[in-house]
Amino acid sequence: MIPQLFFQISLFWRESYSCYLDLIQVRSTQTDFKSVRFLLILLFLRCTVSCYSEMEKSLTSRKWGTIKPADIKTLRTERHWLENVLPTVKPNASKTPLTLTIGNPVIYSAFEPENTALEILSDSIGEATGYTSPGGDIECRKYLAQAYSTETWKLTEDDIFLGAGCNGVLNQIHHVLADPGDTVLLPKVLFPLMKAISINREVNVDEYEFLPEKNWEVNLKDLEERLAKKPKFVYFLNPSNPLGSVWSADHVSEILSLANKYKVPVVTDEIYEGLIFSNSSFNSFGKLSKGQPVFVCSGYSKMGLAPGWRLGWAVCYGKPEIIAPIKKALAKTSLYSLKCNSAVQVELPKLVEASFSYIKAKSVEAEKRAKVFEEALEGCPGISVFKPSGTMFAIIRIRYDEFVDIKSSRDFAIKLLEEENINILPGHLFGDDDFIRVVILDDEEVLREFGTRTREFVMRHIVRGEQKNEAK
Ligand SMILES: Cc1ncc(COP(=O)(O)O)c(C=O)c1O
Q1: Cβ 241 under 6 angstroms from ligand 1
Q2: What distance in angstroms lies between residue 222's CA and the mean position of ligand 1's atoms?
Q3: How many CB atoms neighbour CB 204 within 10 A?
Q4: Candidates 101, 106, 235, 241: which one to mutate for ligand 1, based on the most atoms within 8 Å of Cβ?
Q5: CATH architecture of 110-356
Q6: Which of 317, 391, 326, 362 is nearest to 117 (CA)?
Q7: Contact between residue 300 and residue 309 where contact means Cβ atoms under 8 Å apart
Q8: Would you call 437 helix, strand, or coil by DSSP?
Q9: Domain range list for the chain
Q10: Neighbour-count burial for 431-468, b at 16+ CB within 10 Å, e otherwise
Q11: Which atom of ligand 1 is nearest to the CA of 103?
């Protein structure tokens, strides 16, 4: 564009100079300042016009390249695996695929949403088409406040915030409790969402340890050392995805008193609160709080078996004078955070009420499957199943020293797919390379088939007696 402009200017000078000479000849032989000024104005106008038309030409002739995205620092590890790693693996197409990766209950025939829930929702279509209040529909929040109240905690609608799934409220709470550069304390083994949010927001992550031999309770000594460093909040998953563990009231209370000692707010993800097996009982952190701040995040996704309806909620426990600023901040962020649509919100009381009537039976079904799963792998060398107390997952521990050529959970997952066409998630995606995670909601024959094929797979890779002796 610049050479073009010079060319235009020189052209213009040549034209105007000859014009100027003509003028002088006609008017007088002396230099005429008015003519010079006239010329300069002409020059300026000509330059402006040509400059503008050049700019326009260059803009309209510019080609689309790819658009540079903002700096997205993270992807949820399990999504990265499903979207980027798995497509590079060639499964054994001679065997029927078994896919036990995603915690989406509706894809398993026994865990589809109940007709009652579908009827409730279809009745509401057309009934609630306007906006709700920014924190979510008031009647729905009143209902939840009552459902989550206890003798100690008399909650009101102001203690409840709705979000687009449990994901939505976890995100909102994260924004309200931590700034970029702060540190938050997360479990070493976890559903990757909170870690992904933290990394993306440039919030530092410290991690507390578990005691796998004590049913995956928190290592309290380790937790205390980390709480003493005063993170902005500490996050717990109870019941746990991926571990399937459910903690006793005593253990939850021990954790709460440590967090209280160091004055660290507690955020809990209790989305699996409805899927509890007969060997355990669910104890909410919120209900056991004695006054310290606890923000319970939960939702309808797993208790109603309809994650696509995106009904999530946060419940705020704690002495009003301590949590008032956080509730105010949540109210502010509610003005731009997403919720599920009004039709689903206003039916929440009926939907949740109905879910109480069937989720117990669904938990029994899930527990039955967990048992089938355990039996299918009983006595298998090299691996052992951790018995879940709730949720829809079981983890299989891998003893690498018993394998010839499997050195990581990634190895295990890729080889299992290549050889047996079985799809599971490796533990490293959740922060622990010593296990794989399996969704146990599929039909019992599928779980038995999983056991048979996995056993054959293990036998092909295990160190045999004579190899063991040689190694000695
Ligand atoms: C532990 C945990 N928290 C949160 C979520 C997200 O829940 P929602 O679908 O309600 O956003 C999931 C979904 O699988 C989960 O497993």
Answers
A1: yes
A2: 26
A3: 15
A4: 241
A5: 3-Layer(aba) Sandwich (3.40)
A6: 362
A7: yes
A8: strand
A9: 2-60, 77-107+360-471, 110-356
A10: bbbbbbbbbbbbeeebbebbbebbbebbeebbbeeeee
A11: 14
Q: How far is the CA of 18 from the centre of ligand 1 (A)?
A: 80
Is there a shared CATH topology between the 77-107+360-471 domain and the 110-356 domain? no
Q: Is any atom of ligand 1 closer than 6 Å to the C-beta of 169? A: no
Q: What's the CA gap between 87 and 91, in Å, rounded? A: 10
Q: What is the pLDDT of residue 464?
A: 74
Give me ligand 1 centre to Cα 148, in Å: 19
Q: What predicted TM-score, i.e. pTM, was given to this entire model?
A: 0.86
- The answer to whether the beta carbons of residues 20 and 33 sit under 8 Å apart is no
Say yes or no: CB of residue 237 within 6 Å of ligand 1: yes
Contacts of 323 (CB under 8 A, 6+ apart): 293, 316, 317
pLDDT digits (tens, 9 = 90+) for 337-366: 988 999 999 999 999 999 988 999 999 999
> Which two tokens mark 434?
């010593």
Predicted pLDDT of residue 26: 47
CA of 373 to the centre of ligand 1 (A): 23
Q: 77-107+360-471: what fold?
A: Aspartate Aminotransferase, domain 1 (3.90.1150)
